[in-house]
Amino acid sequence: MTQEPADRSIQRGPGRGITFWLQLLITVLLCVFLILPVMMSLLAGFTANYLEGWSSGLTTAWLIKVLAEYHASIALSLQVAFACLACNLLIGVPAAYALFRSPSRASRVIEELLVMPVAVPGLATALALIVTFGGWGEWRQSWLFILIGHVLFTLPFMVRSVLAVMSSIDLAALEEAARSLGANFWQRMVYVVLPNSAGGIVAGSLMVVTLSLGEFNMTLLLHTPLTKTLPVGLADAYASLRLEVGSAYTVIFFVLIVPLLIALQRVNGRSR
Amino acid sequence: MRARANSIPARIPPGWVESPLLLLPAAVVFCAFFLFPMGRLALIGGSGPLGWGAYGAALSDPRYLASLASTILLAAATTLVTLIVSTVSGVFLTRHRFSGRSLVVSMLTLPLAFPGVVIGFMVIMLGGRQGLIPSMTDALFGERWVFAYSMTGLFIGYLYFSIPRTILTIMASAEKLDPRIEEAARSLGAGPMRVALDVIVPALKPALVAAGAICFATAMGAFGTAFTLATRINVLPMVIYTEFTLQANIAMAAALSFVLGAITWAALALARSVSGTSVAAAG
């Protein structure tokens, strides 16, 4: 992820003064601040009684309780996330290519516009969707209503990720070479453009799924009692159920999201 | 991230027939489900009992003004503290190699994409009724210091949210610093504070402005954390939510959304114009 500095001997000299130890202290404190609550919720999710601590025994009962009560929310979230990914691949990747091929002022404005649903708070987007389409009864009840919000929110991440990779390699020259050899549009797409943008598509996809699984701001307003997603269920559990259940639910969320985050770190690290 | 394709060789005519067609699906979705609904929302904002005055009320009614002020204050405080600690730690991690360094970096960046609700729960783990810090203060001073369900809790939550992404930005930028310039400053007699303020901070300025603006915008617009901690915290997103759900005052909620949206959008536009870093997710 990071490169070795050019000359390490230079920093050795005065490095270990009080500033060094202060910086180290702040870094360690930050680590504790960020990781400790994660560890605590992992523990609490498996502890029979959190107030009594470990002595009350370890249990998977809370986990089972959460799975029994919220399995529909978890399944719905996965369904929305993968549907959202499919939409992004279908409309986001072509859009990124189109923006790449015609780098005009207009395409810059379009790119800027596409970021709007991320720049504007999710609450506002959700309100707008509800006042416009909320009256269409059946649709309002459907999970597709949530999907629309998620696609709007994740699209700029896919477009920018793919666009960044396309711009960093000389894709135009590669494509021109293929064209001069007689490849038609589809052949160039399948054999030149897509393989060469694969890194950006993978990174964008991981980002899209991660964001969709965790999206709450819009989903809280867009959901109905029958279309409750994982994060909405989480808020529910935090508010009304005991700490151990909230923790167990958080553990399930971590199990889904942490592998995605690690994969994302790997992919981003490699492309640098 | 934002490398532009300005250097496309002239032999390829830009904007082929395919390009607009490929953009079309995304453009249709965007117009139908974002621009059009947003337009409707803007009209509805002016259709309440106050008429278009709702937009004025959003900026002049003492009640909304107070929550706007406290939201801005909270976002500014979050930004300031996040930038300071992330710069200290980010520069430190770029400069020093030690065993376990990559583990530290992964630990610091793990919470990067935690949603606001989960971050709210992390704050409850630290400072809630059964949290760690209240139990510790109970053991030490005989008094439980519960801070999670208040503005303090929200502040801690926003720090938790902002630090990982800010550290990443700072580290990427600090990689490019030349340690020899600092060495030169030191050899000329500058103390560590002078070196930090006169050499490191100016060199990191674009990254600091960009990361700070993203930090500010997310803290302004974030909703999940406040929702988890307490519905009584007086920040703008929370007010919008209550206006809409409890008061059924859709016009006011719409007007307030536009005020909030304008602020976050402006902050993020600033971030992009300074450094062109990738988009930030509003938690």
Compressed to H and E, one letter per element, the order of chain B equals HHHHHHHHHHHH
- Helical fraction of chain A equals over 70%
Strand content of chain A: under 5%
Strand content of chain B: under 5%
Architecture (CATH level 2) name of chain B: Orthogonal Bundle
Residue runs with pLDDT of under 50 for 5 or more positions of chain A:
1-14
Helix content of chain B: over 70%
How many beta-strand elements of chain A? 0
Query: Span from first to last CA of chain B?
Result: 21 Å
Unreliable stretches covering 5 or more consecutive residues of chain B: 1-12
Mean pLDDT of chain B: 84
**Shape label of chain B:** globular
Helical stretch count of chain B?
Answer: 12
Biggest interface and its residues per chain? A-B, 113 and 112 residues
**Rg result of chain B:** 23 Å
Q: Helices and strands of chain B: which structural class?
A: mainly alpha
Helix and strand run of chain A = HHHHHHHHHHHHH
- How many beta-strand runs of chain B? 0
CATH class of chain B: Mainly Alpha
Structural write-up:
The complex is a heterodimer of chains A (272) and B (283). Chain A has 2 domains: 11-54; 63-271, MetI-like fold, CATH 1.10.3720.10. Residues 1-14 of chain A have low confidence and may be disordered. Chain A has helices spanning 9-12, 18-46, 61-101, 105-119, 122-133, 137-141, 143-168, 171-180, 185-196, 198-214, 219-222, 230-240, 243-271. In chain A, helix 2 crosses helix 13 (243-271), helix 3 packs across helix 10 and helix 8 packs antiparallel against helix 9 (185-196). Chain A is an all-alpha fold and 272 residues long. The longest helix of chain A has 41 residues, at 61-101. Chain B has helices at 18-45, 53-60, 62-95, 101-109, 116-127, 132-141, 151-174, 179-187, 192-221, 224-229, 236-245, 250-275. With 283 residues, chain B is mainly alpha-helical. Chain B has a single domain (53-275), classed as MetI-like (MetI-like fold, Orthogonal Bundle). Chain B starts with 17 loop residues before the first helix and ends in an 8-residue tail after the last helix. Chain B has 12 helices and no strands. Chains A and B meet through helix 2, helix 3, helix 4, helix 5 and helix 7 of A and helix 1, helix 3, helix 4, helix 5 and helix 7 of B.
